[in-house]
Every structure is written in C-alpha cells, then in structure tokens.
Write a structure and sequence with these properties.
The chain has 98 residues and is mostly helical. It has one domain. The protein is 87% helix and 0% strand. The chain has 2 helices and no strands. Helix 1 packs antiparallel against helix 2. The longest helix is centred in the N-terminal third of the chain and has 61 residues, at 2-62. The protein starts with a helix and ends in a 7-residue tail after the last helix.
Length: 98
C-alpha cells in the first residue's frame, strides 16, 4: 500500500511538472505571437504611409506638365520613406531574413 501511494504521489508530481512546462511554453509562444502581431501592425502602418506617399507622387506625375522640381520632390518623398523602412528593418534583428 505504501509503495502504491509513493507511485501515485510521484506520478502526480511528474504531471504537475509537465503542466508547469506546458504553461511556460504557452506563455513564451503567446509573447512571440504578440510580437508578431505588433510587427504586422507596424508593417501595415508603414505600407499605408508608403501608399499615401505614392498616391501623392502619382498626383504630381498626372498633372499636366509637372515641373522638374515637382517630380523630384515626389521622388524624394518616396525615397525618404523607403530609407526609413530600410533603417527600421536594419535596426530590428527580428526583421532580417535568416
């Protein structure tokens, strides 16, 4: 009887440790999911800003006889946004392709 009780206690303790491990893994996975979701939101915002800037550049290019300065300003806007996106990617090791 004493041996059976020891086996049951050992079994419960082992299961308790496994449950703790599972909970820790779930917490870690949830943090990763939260980070991914935050990154996706940031990417969506960046794409929205880039689309807006591109729309403005297209408006300039669609005006009758745009000036060279207007064309250059539109190109500068797009290049500046592309540089910001590149810099953000370079500063975040999670966004670098492996």
């Amino acid at each position: 009887m004493n041996g059976l009780l020891k086996n049951l206690i050992s079994s419960f303790l082992s299961e308790n440790e496994q449950i703790k491990e599972i909970k820790e893994n779930q917490a870690s996975l949830q943090k990763q999911i939260d980070h991914i979701m935050s990154s996706l939101t940031n990417l969506q915002d960046a794409v929205t800003r880039l689309a807006s800037i591109t729309d403005e550049a297209v408006k300039v290019l669609n005006t009758p006889h745009p000036t060279e300065e207007a064309i250059q300003a539109a190109a500068d806007l797009i290049n500046a946004q592309a540089d910001r996106l590149q810099a953000a990617s370079d500063n975040d090791p999670d966004t670098i392709a492996k």
